[in-house]
Design brief:
1 helix; 0% strand; rod-shaped; single chain; mainly alpha
Length: 67
């Protein structure tokens, strides 16, 4: 028995711009957890770098005061 191929057609009454806007909003919402995790990771890395710079500055100050 031959399988019948199914064809689906959707009627979209929206303009292409409205459709693109809707799809973009769906993608943004779907990826929000990934975006939030990336922002948190970047903020943590920046805090770590800042702490390292402060520690280095304190060591430099201490070395300068000893001489």
């Amino acid at each position: 028995m031959k399988r019948q191929k199914l064809n689906y057609h959707f009627h979209n009454p929206n303009t292409p711009e409205a459709t693109a806007d809707f799809i973009l909003k769906v993608f943004i919402e779907a990826n929000m957890p990934k975006v939030e995790a990336a922002i948190k990771a970047a903020a943590a890395a920046e805090r770590s770098k800042e702490a390292e710079r402060l520690a280095e500055a304190e060591r430099s100050d201490e070395d300068g005061n000893k001489s």
